[in-house]
Amino acid sequence: MFFVDTIELEGLGNRSYLAGGRRTAVVVDPPRDIDQVLVAAARQEVRIAHVVETHIHNDYVTGGLELARVTGAAYLVPAEAHVAFPHVPVADGDVADIDAGLTLRAVATPGHTPHHTSYVLEENGLPVAAFTGGSLLIGTVGRPDLVEPRLTEHLARAQHSSAHRLAAGLPDETPVLPTHGFGSFCSSGQAEGDATTIGREKAANAALTMDVDSFVTRLLAELDDIPAYYTHMGPANAGGPAPVDLTPPAPADAEEIAARLAAGEWVVDLRSRIAFAEGHVAGSFNFEADGKIATYLAWMIPWGKPVTLLAESSEQLSFAQRELVRVGIDRPAAAATGTPDRWVPEGSRPVSFPRSTFAGLAERGTDGVVVLDVRRASERAAGYIGGSVHIPVHELHQRIGEVPAGPVWVHCAGGMRAGIAASLLDAAGRDVVAVDDGFAAAAEAGLNVVTG
Questions:
Q1: Whole-prediction pTM value?
Q2: Which of 106, 137, 143, 374 has the lowest CB atom count within 10 Å?
Q3: Region 346-364 average pLDDT
Q4: For 29, left (φ over 0), alpha (ψ -120 to 50), or beta?
Q5: In whole angstroms, what separates CA 401 from the centre of its chain?
Q6: Residues 326 and 434 placed together within one structural domain of the fold
């Protein structure tokens, strides 16, 4: 008997896996906060004997090195990956014994990275699961442009070849268990559905239904923006990440918050965009804790700049800390919990800005206002409000001076990124309205949506 437990990392859009038998188990692509992995192993009453990486990750800091140290597990890393710590190098065809009758076979699947390796879990010699990392995903593949621009086309072709190798070497009923594809920008597209098999991918995945030239042309045309913080993830993982520290940050009072803002540091309010708009510390930025805070804060903050977190509760603060250590933002400079009236100096009051919908914008009319679209270029290509200004949210902090004069109505695809952008504009002294609405409502409201 074997089991496979999935460990969801919803904020980053990834998955890790714990798989094993009656006594021992392997962990595939563990997150940096390893406590949840240890809890999963305790629940299954197994010892973690192996920790494996499919590749050197670009979108998060791994917990593999620390997990192997804590558990005494063998740490398996693809042999062609250049890392600075002790490990067991893994080459194509290598086999590790996981438990009685249960083995893990390495399959070289370059494409997402040159050294990418998938792992096939076999019970009594028969494949029962394929951990495909950033190779074969649900309906797509991992993007090939995160390593070196000159290698992108070569790696795209390798992705096609690797997908075919997996499909040819495994039974149709084999579950495909990828790391990426659930929101991560490491995926060239988002998963359609929650689970898949080799057989389903043969029928629907472009890597397995298109010839290599057509596939590569399509894949390269669909590549999206790369989060800026990815630059720092590979070196951190190759060098050997330090253990995490999730203890509460030093508390900050109103005077310290004001001083940090005056010093040009980032003060980040973790509350909902609704609560933030109703009242917040002037100059603070809004990144919702339950949004994609790890992706967007790490993408936008100047790397290494001190950040102070403001939360409505200690639970919200703890959740955000956990999300941020996964992308290398290890220790907030300070933090405060409560409500905005406690975060401003005596004699000051929280500030606010209005929220609206696309129907509200249509009723007001677009004359005399700036309509700012902060979606990515790939999203805007499918349709945009005529006359709107386009600056993706991840570029707005550096380009805020390009926003034309006048009141700004800012929107995205659903409201979260508009909330971030509105907070940046508000901090810059602009008159802003956050459009908290799905973009499909723009045309329904009668706004001029340009397509084609």
A1: 0.94
A2: 106
A3: 97
A4: left
A5: 28
A6: no
